[in-house]
Write a structure and sequence with these properties.
The structure is a single chain. The protein is of the alpha/beta class. The chain folds into 2 domains: about 130 residues, Rossmann fold, CATH 3.40.50.2000; about 160 residues, Glycogen Phosphorylase B (Rossmann fold, 3-Layer(aba) Sandwich), CATH 3.40.50. About 35% of the residues lie in helices and about 15% in strands. It is built from 13 helices and 11 strands. It has a 6-stranded parallel sheet, sandwiched between helices. Helix 2 packs parallel to helix 7.
């Protein structure tokens, strides 16, 4: 049997889909797993041992379809469900298994605050797509694999807090001043993690205490940043890819929620019976959360209470508790 999984992006969404790749590979004898994703997402899965062959989409969908026609897929497993994936499905003409995207339920929740979301995490819904093949969730959580030899050493031998300061959208991240206040409340070594776009902010935060705060934003590859998360004592992150990579390594995590929320069924996902500690930092009783349009540069309401009213001392207290051995 040959399966084509489609999940174009983004980092967090691909990691959240990782249980489906693993369960299919381990439960279907002789199965051959193919994955179609964006070329920019190559590093997210290239070391995944459960995927046999990769296909990368750049900008020419017609060329991608022609490439895929060279394989005899038994099923397409559509874990993205957008116009591109529908075009591929129509062009290949093979049976399709697709996850429940809950588009109507998300619309009701974000536009009208009417919660009809089922109590079913997106990672479980990804595995549910494979139910017609007899595949079930194995309870082992998420996966992320770092190529052998990837190492970032010499950072705070006594341990450190990994603080992921970036996010895909401005409305999903703490303002700079709040991040500065937070690091002042944490007495432990801190490694700031982010991309090139966070480099300047990271430098400003690290300047508050250069001996205790290290800015790595824009310095390392995805693999190296993932290694920093893997080796941390605990991880603080906005709703971004590194949050779910931290879950894959079963790190104690503090998830800071702004425009999005756990109500969207994307909360940190750990293996069953895990002793890992998870704290959801979320401002209570906000009628505008999750946001009606979280992919923006500014709060549509103008107040940005979901981040500006975060209880930073409570987050710092959680850091203190998680820093100690269980």
């Amino acid at each position: 049997m040959r399966l084509l999984f489609i999940r174009f992006s983004a980092i967090g969404d691909i990691v959240l889909a990782s249980a489906a790749f693993r369960c299919a590979k381990q439960q279907l004898p002789g199965v051959e797993i193919h994955l179609l994703t964006k070329r920019s997402m190559k590093a997210v899965t290239e070391a995944n041992p459960y995927i046999d062959q990769f296909h990368y989409f750049d900008s020419d969908l017609a060329a991608t379809i022609e490439e895929l026609k060279g394989y005899s897929f038994d099923y397409i497993v559509d874990l993205h469900k957008n116009l591109r994936s529908f075009r591929i499905r129509l062009a290949l003409g093979v049976p399709v298994l697709a996850y429940n995207k809950l588009s109507v339920e998300k619309f009701l929740l974000t536009k009208f605050q009417v919660n009809r979301m089922p109590d079913r995490h997106i990672s479980l819904r990804s595995v549910d797509a494979l139910a017609p093949l007899g595949v079930v969730y194995d309870g082992k959580g998420l996966d992320h694999f770092i190529p052998a030899g990837t190492q970032v050493s010499g950072l705070f031998p006594e341990g450190y807090v990994a603080l992921v300061i970036g996010a895909s959208y401005a409305t999903k991240k703490l303002p700079l001043e709040s991040l500065k206040q937070l690091v002042k409340l944490i007495p432990h070594p801190i490694v700031l993690i982010g991309g090139p776009e966070e480099k300047v902010e990271g430098a400003e935060i690290a300047a508050l205490d250069p001996d205790r705060i290290l800015n790595t934003c824009g310095m390392y590859s995805l693999h190296e940043s993932a290694a920093l998360v893997r080796d941390a004592r605990l991880v603080i992150s906005h709703d971004t890819g590194m949050l779910y990579i931290a879950c894959a390594f079963e790190k104690n995590v503090i998830a800071i929620w702004g425009a999005t929320s756990p109500a969207l069924q994307v909360e940190p996902f750990m293996p069953e019976n895990s002793k890992t500690r998870v704290f959801q930092a979320i401002v209570p009783n906000l009628t505008c959360q999750p946001c009606s349009n979280f992919g923006t540069k500014t709060c549509p309401k103008g107040h940005f209470n979901c981040m500006k009213q975060q209880d930073l001392p409570a987050i710092a207290r959680q850091v203190g508790e998680m820093w100690q051995p269980a």
